Amino acid sequence: MGKRVALVLAGCGVFDGSEIHEASAALVHLSRGGAEVKIFAPNIEQRDVVNHLKGSPTEEKRNVLVESARLARGNIQDLAELKASEFDAVIFPGGFGVAKNLCSWAVDGKNCTVNEHVNSTLQAFHSAKKPIGLCCISPVLVAKVFPGCEVTVGQDKNVDGRFPDAETASAIAELGCKHICKNVNESHVDKANKIVTTCAFMCKAPLHEIFDGIGTMVQEVLKLA
């Protein structure tokens, strides 16, 4: 029997939802690892809708669950229905939707609030000692919910201009968590909390390196499951 993994999305599109390449990479690596995957998203309105061609917000209103259904090919459930008892692990791809829809990090930084269903999902898997995988900006979710945990969002300095959001590492440290510097093709395993993180698009890197890094995260999650 393959591991049962829940994948939580935050919309569709890097600037206002889930990062599509990260979500796809996670699904490919989970498939390769023989996992049985079910996809979830919160049934809430997006914080904003961004025109991805122009990079600017629009006046549109969109729903996170409906938009996430694009990535899930329609096979998706409301996050409120996720039961940790039915899964061996949970994974959160990144994208600005994590920082806008799953929590308020995009506006409030370390003072953010986490969506109630995201929070309860994280708490349920953590309490059951089941692994949680996160990439890109999504490690801020566990940094906020589990003070003292270890995560990576890449580097804590903008090395060679490849890590323009390196200040996120400092904000994570201010939450009482330990940031571990890692390269894009690596992941970090917090064994005590069963949290696995990788930086993905927090690093300006070739797509195949981001894909490989997400692969290490997925492999470690499946090992812990």
What structural category do the secondary elements indicate? alpha/beta
| Beta-strand content bin | 15-25%
Please tell me the total number of domains: 1
Helix percentage range: 25-40%
Distance between the termini: 12 Å
Q: Work out the helix count.
A: 8
In total, the number of strands is 11
Radius of gyration: 16 Å
Shape summary:
globular
Q: Strands of the largest sheet, in order across it?
A: 5-2-1-6-7-11-10
What would CATH call the class?
Alpha Beta
| Main sheet makeup | 7 strands, mixed
Give the CATH architecture: 3-Layer(aba) Sandwich
Mean pLDDT: 98
Order of helices and strands: EHEEEHEEHHHEHEHEEEH
CATH superfamily heading: Class I glutamine amidotransferase (GATase) domain
Low-pLDDT runs of 5+ residues are none
CATH topology: Rossmann fold
Protein name: GAL3A protein
InterPro entries: Class_I_gatase-like
Protein traits:
8 helices; alpha/beta; globular; 225 residues; Rossmann fold; two-stranded antiparallel ribbon
